[in-house]
Give the backbone structure.
Amino acid sequence: MRPLLFLLTLGTCLHAAPYILLIVADDQRPDTIHALGNAVIDTPSLDRLVAGGTSFSRAYAGYPICHVSRAQILTGNPAFQALPKYPGGAIDPSLATLGGTLQKAGYQTCYTGKWHNDGHPQQRGYTTTSGLYSSGGGKGVTQPDLDDRGRPLTGYRGWTFKDENNQAELGKGVGLQPDNSRHIANGAIHALQTAPLGRPLFLHVNFAFPHDPRQWPTGMKDRYAAAKIPLPANFAPQHPFDHGNIDGRDELLLPKPRIPNDIRAELALYYAMITDLDAQLGRILAALPEPEDTIIIFTSDQGLALGSHGLLGKQNEYEHSIRSPLIICGPGLPKNERTAALANLNDLFPTLCDLIGIAIPPTVQSKSLAPLLRHQTNRVHEFVTGVYTDTQRMICDERWKFVIYPKAHREQLFDFGDVCRAIRTCNPAQHQSFRPSHLAAPRYGGPGHPSSASDRVCSDSLAGSV
């Protein structure tokens, strides 16, 4: 046990201060961890975390797009509270931040990897950065317009790594390069090796993999044979209606209708990027001074479709996109446990406060998962919600999921019963009897974002899965 004692500024008791390691992947589906049921992918480091902690099978991103989801994690608030002027807006400056709260509690706070919110991490409560990866800095550097398969490179244009003075490190390339995860891991390891003595460390590591533009990491080319990759069980050549992002940037990365071999090839590359991320995670875990006394959380900002329901991107309310993998490990916490309890990514802020014994800031609107981890309850949320722009609204509980598409005038009702299925409905009145009371009239939109659809709706049956 680390001998360090520190005085929590929000209390009067002395506590041993655990290191905190929060790792966030980018667009990693919840079904991409070997120990949690994916027999194809190799993820030994994540498997180790699964064995050493609690895995959540129903952790929801809330708003499945990178910068919004990350703002929710940073503030412990839902999308329209964290970013009141979204799209394109800044984090509400009146909100407490995770980094700032832990810094006030005596932590050295370090941010590593992808920064996709306004400003700079040091404006959001982080005392240092190491291996920072953010937009800008690549001006004047020519980037290829096509990848090695002749497809347009539309993601991470002009992004660069930054040094401690926020100057671009052009030697590491511009855009999303094959060694991106290794550079981020190097930054995290440097932070661990140079952390000041006498203070606990909060290290927030944000990978950019396996987001597109997808490419083979160094040493991983053809790591997975595309022909051996199974298609998602809910693969479809195309989505049956415009869900609000049918022609979005990442929906155009592959031709429509979707071709099975194209999806298999994309999944093979996607899996290789995750396996590389897993290897870099292993390097970070090996560098922890006292891993058994460290709170470790792994998650992703959201999932991804990659052929499920005929979609490629994450901007939808289906489980493969709105859910994230979530594993929580720490001293005194259960090991090798699985839970289907509902959780939100913005719950991580109050959960960490609870685990180290400090007060949760009053601006935080989410709930601590600590009582669930400590077996004090088996449920924290009765229901959770999801949203994307003004085109999608979702609410679900342990049994049902209801999705409204206000602009498409569609509804979907999903049953999480013994066999997960979609129920075809041609009139909302036909499925009123299926809805628990909190599903009857979901109202959780933001300014300018409708909270419910009209009665002119008819949903499509999407057999097999949500």
In short: The first strand starts at residue 5 and ends at 7.
